[in-house]
Amino acid sequence: FASSSVDPYAGETKEQRDERMAWWREARFGMFIHWGVYAVPAGTYNGEQIKGIGEWIMLRGKIPVAEYKAYAKEFNPVNYDPVAWAQLAKAAGMRYVVITSKHHDGFALFPSAVSDWDIADASPYGKDLIGPLADAARAEGLKFGLYYSQAQDWTHPGGSFWPNREKEGEGHWDEGQKGDFDSYLDAIAVPQVDEILSRYQPDILWWDTPAWMDNTRAERLLPLLETVPDIIHNNRLGGDYKGDTETPEQHIPATGFKDRDWEVCMTMNDTWGYKSYDQNWKSTKDLIQKLCDIVSKGGNFLLNVGPTAKGEIPLPSIERLQAVGRWMDVNGESIYGTTASPFYRLHWGRCTKKLHGDGATLYLHVFDWPEDGRLLVPGLKNLPVNAILLHSGEALKADSATDGEKSGVVLTLPKTAPDPYSSVIKLEVEGKL
Ligand code: FHN
Fold first, then answer.
1. Distance from the CA of 149 to the center of ligand 1, in angstroms?
2. What are 91-121's pLDDT values in tens digits?
3. CA of 272, closest atom in ligand 1
């Protein structure tokens, strides 16, 4: 990966990086928030439902800049309650929050000295939305991150330059968008990144869509990271700069990334930004099993909510987060601070682990509870010195066995699964796995 004198982490040692990433690897689970003016049209423009993700409505609907900017007058989140949002994230078992400070439409949710297309000047609300959430998150003991769309600003001249899609007419759909990309970077992106880093000191900077950023352009932004010691940033800045984390989106990779921290970002339904007609809400069971799957491969899960223009998180999101939180209350130790499964594949569920001195703690996430009460952990050589159901502490019988051609440890389980979504068994094993 590139690292130059402008990269604050050029030459960082493995020990230094491990120390800087420690809280993030412990956290494993965070809340993503996509919020902005796009919540006003909420997926509908000129009476037509615009296909695709809600925060892209300006581009998908080819909404002229002036028309789109008029929506800001209706972006008045009078019901915004950052404390409630932070408490909801905490109750869900999430340990960090990342919110869009500026998405591709260029609207800043923070007062910006370099643009009047911001919450202070363009919305009747008129007050900073970011600072209160940063304070509320930290008051709940959560870490706080900011998403910033550095390479796109569809309302600013030069900010919507799509060189590879110019021919499809997607580069600009409004004369007012024509301009020089580098001038946009210098006028907006560089000073605004400086503003949000200096003012909010976020623990994470979540760049998005590197698009046509090259090393030279990325190096205009990188030095700004010095403003926040130990800040974590992702692989979406641009050029050869890969930051600290890989960011697979809307899918779970088959395996983890070797020697790279990584985080799956995902929506609960079909859109990041609020739409008034949502399809395909994922079930609580699906979300919990995705969390177990991701963490069993050594990754983090950044799960999204898309609040309304009035500042409300949609009820289906709240219900799911509260249900996930009830599961985390009982089983969180099988997620926080764990590392990837030592087993190649478990047909009945997943596994996470915590290595220690002379052995390991293994957490088995059983999705499919065996009807015959026998669970084979294939490849586990040593009999566990202790085996319990995590939720009750009930001891389980463990025997070495072979099941067909597979050898391992067979656990004798009670008839019914303790949890409808993912029942956790805790094993203490000695020696090398
Ligand atoms: O274009 C954005 C999209 O709107 C959303 O913010 C996702 C979330 O990671 N990122 C980009 C698509 O990759």
1. 9
2. 999 999 999 999 999 999 999 999 999 999 9
3. 5
Closest atom of ligand 1 relative to the 152 alpha carbon: 1
Confidence of residue 2 (pLDDT cuts 50, 70, 90): low
Expressed in percent and rounded to 5, the helix, strand and coil fractions of the chain are 30, 20, 45
Q: Phi then psi for 105, rounded to 5 degrees?
A: -80, -5
pTM (predicted TM-score): 0.97
The answer to whether 72 touches 129, Cβ cutoff 8 Å, is no
From the list 106, 233, 100, the residue with the least C-alpha distance to 159 is 106
Judged against a pLDDT cut of 80, whether residue 181 lies above it is answered with yes
CB 211 within 8 A of CB 184: no
CA of 75 relative to ligand 1 center, distance in Å:
21
Q: Running DSSP on this structure, what letter comes out for residue 188?
A: I
DSSP 249: B
What distance in angstroms lies between residue 186's CA and the mean position of ligand 1's atoms?
Answer: 23
Tell me the β-bridge partners of 349: 366
Copy the structure tokens of residue 302. Answer: 């950044």
CB burial of 340-356 (b: ≥16 within 10 Å; e: otherwise) equals: bbbbeebeebbbbbeee
Q: What is the pLDDT of residue 406?
A: 76
**Long-range interactions of 160-163: CB distance < 8 A, separation 24+:** 160/59, 161/212, 162/211, 163/212
Q: Cα(291)–Cα(274) distance, rounded to whole angstroms?
A: 23
At 395, list the tokens.
């001891």
Please state the φ and ψ torsions of residue 246, each to the nearest 5 degrees: -80, 155
ipTM > 0.95 (yes/no)? yes
